[in-house]
Amino acid sequence: MIPAPTLSADKANQATNWHLIKRLLAFSWAYRASCLKVLFLQLFLLTLGLGGLSFIGLGLDVIRHSIDPTTPEPRGVFGLAPPGEWTAMHQVTLLAGLILGMALVRAGLNYYYTVSVGHLVHNQIVFDLRSKVYEKLQSLSFRFFDANASGSIINRVTGDVQALRVFVDGVLIQTVIMILSLIVYITYMVSIHLTLTIACLATLPVLWGITVVFSTKVRPLYMRNRELVDRMILVLSESIQGITTVKGFGREREEREKFLRANEDVCAQHGVIFWLVSLFSPTVGLLTQINIMILLGYGGYLVFQGEIALGSGMVVFAGLLQQFSGQVSNIATIANSVQRSLTGARRVFEILDAPVEIQSKPGAVRLERAKGEVRFENVGFSFKGVDPVLKDISFTARPGQIVAVVGATGAGKSSLMSLIPRFYDPTAGRILLDGHDLRDLDLQDLRRNIGIVFQENFLFSNTVAANISFGKPDVDREAIEKAAGIAAAHDFIKDLANGYDTVLGESGVNLSGGQRQRLALARAILLEPPILLLDDPTAAIDPETEHEILEAMDRATAGRTTFIVAHRLSTLRRADLILVLEHGQLVQTGTHDELYNAPGLYRKLARLQIIDDLKERDTLLTRNPNG
Question: How much is the pTM?
Answer without folding.
Answer: 0.65
